Amino acid sequence: MIRTYDVSRTVTKTVIYIVCIFLSALSVLPFWIMFMNATRSTYEIQQSAISLLPSKYFFSNWSVLLGKSFNPLVGFLNSLLISTGATLCAVYFSSLTAYALVAYEWKGRQAFFTFIMCVLMIPAQVAGIGFYQFMYRIHWTNSFLPLILPAIAAPAMVFFMRQYLLASLSLEIIDAARIDGSGEFGTFNRIILPIMKPAIATQAIFSFVGSWNNLFTPLILLTDKNHYTMPIMVSLLRGDIYKTEYGSVYLGLSLTTLPLFIIYFLLSRYIIAGVALGGVKE
189: buried, middle or exposed (CB in 10 Å: 19+, 13-18, 0-12)? Predict the structure, then answer.
């Protein structure tokens, strides 16, 4: 009986491993095809869009990419600056707002949270024209500030952080810190932020990816080529009226994707730690 149970358990684990490996390969496959297409010529891509093996046209695609009227390195640095600044602003101030909604009793707290949820339902494209007119009047076009500072108001992130604090924060910790003489900002920075590491890591990934891939807002605000971001530059690669070099397009997409992998691998351990922590029962 025991041997039958062990065999059944082994078979179940094997099936689970096979399914997980298959799903992992299925998730990685589109990115692998993109990287492989970055090494292929336009003719090869048009003849066969899918190839799992690299070709020999990587350096020619790189030459085409550098031969355009913009510098991919400048676009990479611009996107990195904007995405990092927007992520830091969004994560810190959203955490601070969520902390105020959970830790303090004040009149209008529920109404304020309801207002945040209402703002969450407004698409960014609806306010695009008004936002551009406002930035134009204060002379903030061709500047990175309107792409970074608005990230301070991130309703979806506030909602996520609030729900996380409601489940994981004990108000007795805050009272103990106040008794020990800690200030409000000191308590938040030294005690609350470490507690929120898993939630911060999760939202930092989403915020960085969203800001890095953002095309709409930079496209209407940035007209100087020295301020172009990587998504703008990649979109312009397909604007050639004579011929679209698909190899260079895939190479630009690959360069755009690499930082996202790096950010995920740097922060994924905090997400896993948060899931493990949430599974522990007292």
Answer: middle
